[in-house]
Amino acid sequence: MVARLRSAFWGLFLVVPTAVLAQATCEKPVYLTLDTGHMGVAPLVADVLKRQNVRVTFFAAAERTQTDGDSLDNHWAAWWKARAAEGNEFGSHTYDHVYWRGDEKSVEPRFRVKPSAGAFAGREFTWSAAQYCENIAKASDRLEFVTGKKPLPLFRAPGGKTSPKLLAAAKACGYAHVGWSPAGFLGDELPSETFSNEKLLAQALDRIRPGDILLAHLGIWSRKDPWAPADLEPLIVGLKEKGFCFQTLRQHPDYRDWIAKHS
After folding, report:
1. Mean pLDDT by 10 residues, the chain (263 residues)
2. What distance in Å separates the CA atoms of residue 254 and residue 12, rounded to the nearest whole number?
3. How far apart are CA 44 and CA 57, in angstroms?
4. Would you tell me which of 37, 42, 145, 155 could form a disulfide with 219, CB atoms 3.0–4.6 Å apart?
5. Could you give the residue ranges of the DSSP H alpha helices within the chain?
């Protein structure tokens, strides 16, 4: 009996530190982030991530989809919940995929914005900081509802378009902005006629460096030859072969303290 207990004890001792050791030995991390899109490739992307045992950070907006709804509607709720169960992380992409267009000259921060999704898509407005924050929070709240997991206190502005005033306003309401690394722009928004998947894959494998934040989407309407999943698995496999490992933004050194403080 004593021998069996001792064996069980040491078995537990060895199992727990293994995960910790694996995390500690991630010397060349990269941070794959996926923004929403038409969602047509979302099931295939999920299959690749599961097969490769890779965790990512999703930034979600309620964008128009190929299923005649939006990417945060009930049709996709089960898909999002499954991604949460796999250990992925989530952040806001503004609910209406709202592009920052400029700062207003005013005492209180106000911004010219243009949603590209929702009932007011394509129209330009002037929003207060509170209105912009409400749109960030709306996507975050919806994500929490459909996933059952609290999103990170992070957001990504559509197109990465921001200003110092906008970033300060977002931070004041609890959201830090996440862009991407120059080499981390994976090119899935570019025309496939001039930027083939083969060219984009070779470029990414050549240029990506440890610590880079990578960006791709769950479907781009304008690209004729979809980047994902064609390039996604070869990219992951190629980076692993070069010694890279994949982490979520919860583990990113620039955001760890912010997340701990604001979660």
Report:
1. 40 38 74 98 98 98 97 98 98 98 97 98 98 98 98 98 98 98 98 98 98 98 97 98 98 98 95
2. 33
3. 16
4. 37
5. 2-24, 42-52, 77-85, 129-147, 164-172, 197-207, 232-241, 256-262
Q: What is 189-244 written as a DSSP string?
A: TS-TTTS-HHHHHHHHHHH--TTPEEEEES--TT-SS--TTTTHHHHHHHHHHTT-
CB 102 within 8 A of CB 111: yes
Instruction: Say which residue the tokens 């992951």 belong to.
Output: 236
For residue 236, give every residue at least 6 positions away whose Cβ sits within 8 Å of its Cβ, in sequence order, or none: 32, 48, 52, 54, 246
Structure token digits, residue 177: 């902005």
Distance CA 251, CA 247 (A): 6
Q: Which residues pair with 98 in a beta bridge?
A: 115
- Please state the φ and ψ torsions of residue 181, each to the nearest 5 degrees: -80, 150
